[in-house]
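Below is how a single chain appears once it has passed through the pipeline. First comes the sequence as given, then the structure the pipeline wrote out for it. We keep one example in the README because the format questions we get most often are answered faster by looking than by reading.
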Amino acid sequence: MNDVNQTPAGFADERVEIEGISVSTRHLIGNERVGSSATFESRSPIDWNWKLADVAAGDAETADLAVSSAVEGFAAWSAFSPAERAAVLRRLADLIDEHNDDIALIETLDMGFRHQSMRERLVARGAVNFRTYADLVEGWEQEEWDAKNTHHIVQRMPAGPAVVITPWNAPFMLSTWKVAPALAAGNSVILKPAEWSPLSASLLADLVVEAGFPPGTFNIVQGIGEEVGAALVSDPRVRRLSFTGSPATARHIGRAAAENIVPFTAELGGKGALVVFADADLEAAAAKAAEQYEDSGQVCLAGSRIMVDQAIAEEFLAAFQRHTEAHVMGDPRDDTTSIAPVAHADHLENIAAFVDRARTAGDRIVWGGQRVDGSMHYEPTLIEPASNDSEIVQNEVFGPVLTFQTFASEDEAVELANSTKYGLSSIVYTTDRERAKRVGQQIRAGIVWANTFLVRDLTAPFGGCGISGIGREGGQYALEFHSDLQTLVIAD
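Resulting structure:
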């Protein structure tokens, strides 16, 4: 966790220059930058001695100010027609595209993901998120029909202020993924970014003001989750809660949501299976398995449990190792780097502890298993567990640590895939289309890919089963969540 430091009242350091890019370190409330008397440090995993900024740390008073602003902003923003809201969302998307390079670099410096991936894919996806929801909200038609001598009309009504809490990995893209449907539905938003990587959200705040959103429509409050986050989610004026993070934190938010009778959606990570059948394209499957190490495995959708038909296990393992050895660990600003550093020193400690416990428990380290001296990297690691009940199989590591298991039949493969409490995603490799369909539909996961990975239609539902989440995001599903439905019945 980031340490909070007390600073003189007023917090003078409003903006900092990072590699020539100006970034505000303050909250955004009512389209104005607001400081705090306390700060926390944002450090770069590229070099942990590199302090990027002292960032304003909000408290309960900050949370109250932000919710009050969102209540006022909701009155103005909800009065916009869907077409008017869509126009502002598209202006914001255009501004994101114009500032892609700056956003991508700041995010790379702040949390360590590869700069190439950021600038070519993830930041651009942020703009797509806003355009997608602009199209969806503008294209929605209310339902009308006649029944029992009356005319029925179903309309969506904006629900009210929404609190959005986002994780530290790919924070810009994931923030836009949650914020876009809330704004499109006509809600005002308070975004609380993760304290490990808050800076790209501040750049988003600048663009929101430039795009012309009314004051209070979009607010950002920075700080430690247990402090300002807890105050935000427990405020009874908040009418929607959306969270991505750990199951432990979700339980706290869920209790606050229940207390105030507030709809709550959560995406809580995964422990995805990557299942390879004997008839699979072995090279493609092995290459995809090695891809799970990219960005140090800090991707909730990663297939971190490799499961291979025992008939091809040795052949697959040889190809998998060859693809793994082709990876390059290094500075994420270098386009030749494929494995970026771990995002935070605390998380590096957590990954190392997982592997140390596995080693002590008798699980076999096939390769890797060590920190890289002088950097924030951890070696790509493969572990053959002593049992499917091993901690390393059952719990999310969220790092460059994969497990390797074999199966003898299709039924056993499905059983293994479904044997954890998670259910966010899985990957299946087979050249038999009917098997792909059959197995995919038996796996308990919110999304299953067959012979591919990370292909997303943004109008499709997204979310998890088990402890991987509650509710669904994406497309009309997210707009429904952020709306109250009204049925109007008019007698002739």
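The chain has two domains: 4-268+466-491, 273-450.

See the next section for the split statistics.
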